[in-house]
Structure formats: C-alpha cells, structure tokens
Design a protein that fits this description.
The protein has helices at about 1-15, 25-45, 65-70, 85-95, 145-155, 225-235, 250-255, 315-320; strands at about 50-60, 75-85, 100-105, 110-120, 140-145, 165-170, 180-185, 190-195, 215-225, 240-250, 265-270, 275-285, 305-310, 325, 335, 345-350, 355-360. The protein is an alpha+beta fold. Strands 1, 2, 3, 4, 13, 14, 15, 16 and 17 form a nine-stranded mixed beta sheet that branches.
Length: about 350
C-alpha cells in the first residue's frame, strides 16, 4: 500500500511541476507527503478502543471454598454475592436453562468474579495434565510488596504450586531482569501468579509505601498460538496498545512454568486506562501445546471470561462481525438489571478461543 501510494504521489508531483514555479517543489512535496501520511495513519486507526479491562471472570465448582481461598490466602474482599438467571443471561452466555451464583471479589482497585453454575451442572474440569504451554492456559498476576511474605502465605495454607519456588528473572532478560514470580493453583486448578517488581520495573503504583502484602492485579495472561494473529484481534480490531514484551527462557523460566526448555514470547498490551492489561504467552518451545477444545462451553471450569469495556457496543459488534470474529452470545444482550455492572454485553472468541466479555456500561 505504501509503495503504491508513493508512486501515486510521484505522479501528482510530476504533473504539478508543469504548472507550479520551480521554487515551490519543496512546499508541494511537504504538502503531498503530509497528506498521504495522514491518510495512511487514519486508515490504520482501529474503529474500537477498549477503555478498560473490567473483572476477570472464572467458573468455580464450590463457591464457598473459592471465596474462602481468595479471602484468606490472597486478601480479596467479597463485595457482593447474588444469583442470576433468565433468557437474557442464557443468550449472553449461550447456555440454555442457566442459573448461576456470582461472587464479586475485590483486591484494592481490581475485581474478579467467581461463577458457580447451579443449572446446568458444572462443565468439564481443568485437565489434571494441563501445562503452561496449552492454549487454554490463562492466569492473572497479583503484585506483592514482599515476595517472601506472600510466599509464606501460600505455604501456610499449603497451596498447590506450579513453580518450584519464587524465581528471580535473570539479568540477561533486560526487559524483566530482577522481577520475582511464582505460579500456583486455586482450588479448581486455575493458574495464578504472584509478582514482585524491582524499583526500575512495573508501574509506579506498585512501589508506593504500604504495609499491605497483596497490592492488586497487574494483568491476565493467555496462551496463544500466533502473536501476529492475536495482535490483529486485540490491537487492530479492539485498539489495545502494545506496552512492552520480552523473550523469557532459561532455568528460571523452566522452574517458574514447570516446563522443560521453555522459551516464551511475551507481549504486554494495555487499554486506554493502564491496568490491568493482557499478556500474550506464545511458547516457541516446547512445541505441542494443545488448543482449546472446539466443544468448550461457557460453564466449563477452564473457561475464563475477560471483561472489556467499550463506549458503543453495537458499533463494536458490527466492526467485529465485519472482521469475521466468532461469537458465543446471540447478538448484543441488554440485561434486565445492573448486578454484573453493565447494561449490555456480548461474548466473542479471540483467535485461540479465549472468551472476551465485551460490555457497555
């Protein structure tokens, strides 16, 4: 496109030379180039800009057990709990006869939502042999002020770990050097991560003076098969901006992921507001990560929903349909109440099958 545009610009310039005095070519060049660049920039602007990531939504098999875990182990506060059902929610989640129990849990400024299906019964559990490079893998990362104290909390409650122990990323990884991390499971085997940032890494909010150990949610991370395809969906179609990235490998990454020979291409994206963000995890090694099953249902325990907030849901859905996105919901659903914190919503799948709950307040 740029080469064709340049040729067209040259033709206009050559024809214009016959009518404009020789002293004007520089000005003409500037006007033509600026006009062309403006056209290209406008053409590349996404029609949708996600304002913020809302709640991270997870299915659980035992609500009381999960609320207890997130409250006692990770210092979340239960904000509300309620039941939902009816045709609007059936259309939104694509599940007939739906009745769900929802608990909203808050850590500082960020929320997660836990959903237990009353009807129909719970879907499939997370496979016991699930690995970090499987494409259904998703976690969210909690920032801590003191990794040793946070890790002691995991040990106190005998939390099942993915990592051997907290890992410090090496100096050879300049983008992530000095960051400490450990991965573990919640009671339903949802992967979670604790992060500690040195002073030269992370957002300034994670370095404020506090006695609290658990500070907030930095991002949710998803396993993907192709970074470029995911960027087209999240950046070009939804307007999230790339805010950083790295290639993570070596003994520390192996121990963190409990995967031998790990080499992970990481890309971090942010919405208009800074946090939480979305992190891509493309495992270049080891190969053989399994895709999300095509028969995955909204009530399967491995199904996560990441809430994305937009200003105009109808135009967003139109734009996504024009670009052949896959939908779970039967069109835009207007809800009968505001219990979930939004008025209209739709669930769409990304290129790897991760579910995005796109909402309008």
């Amino acid at each position: 496109m740029i080469n064709k545009g340049r040729k067209a610009t040259l033709k206009i310039y050559e024809s214009s030379r016959k009518r404009i005095p020789f002293s004007a070519p520089i000005l003409l060049w500037l006007l033509l180039i600026l006009g062309f660049l403006s056209h290209v920039a406008t053409a590349q602007q996404p029609k949708v800009n996600v304002k913020a990531l809302g709640s991270i939504v997870m299915n659980v098999s035992d609500m009381d057990r999960s609320v207890d875990f997130y409250s006692k182990v990770l210092s979340f506060e239960k904000v509300s709990e309620f039941e939902l059902g009816g045709p609007e929610y059936e259309k939104l989640f694509g599940v007939d006869g739906l009745r769900i129990r929802v608990a909203v849990m808050r850590l500082e400024e960020q929320n997660i939502e836990l959903i237990q299906y009353i009807a129909p019964k719970d879907g499939d559990p997370i496979p016991m042999d699930s690995r970090s490079n499987d494409l259904w893998f998703q976690h969210f990362a909690i920032v801590v002020s003191d990794m040793d104290k946070a890790y002691a909390q995991l040990q106190k409650y005998k939390v099942k770990q993915i990592s051997t122990n907290p890992q410090t990323l090496p100096e050879t990884n300049k983008a992530a050097a000095g960051i400490r991390a450990v991965k573990f499971f919640d009671p339903d085997r949802h992967p979670l991560e604790l992060l500690w940032f040195p002073l030269d890494k992370g957002d300034p909010r994670w370095h404020s003076s506090t006695e609290k150990v658990f500070l907030g949610i930095d991002h949710t991370a998803i396993g993907i098969g192709d970074t470029e395809a995911s960027l087209k969906f999240y950046s070009e179609l939804l307007g999230l901006r790339v805010a950083g990235g790295s290639i993570n490998k070596g003994m520390e990454q192996d121990n963190l992921d409990n995967v031998n020979g790990a080499m992970v291409r990481i890309t971090f994206l942010r919405p208009q507001t800074t946090f939480p963000g979305i992190e891509f995890l493309e495992y270049e090694k080891p190969e053989g990560g399994r895709p999300i099953p095509t028969d995955t249902d909204s009530n399967d325990i491995w199904r996560w929903h990441t809430k994305l907030v937009v200003d105009d849901l109808n135009s967003t859905v139109k734009w996504l349909r024009e670009n052949n996105a896959r939908f779970i919901s039967l069109g835009v659903v207007t809800l009968p109440d505001d219990k979930l914190g939004f008025s209209k919503g739709v669930i769409v799948l990304d290129p790897d099958g991760h579910a995005m709950l796109i909402v309008e307040k």
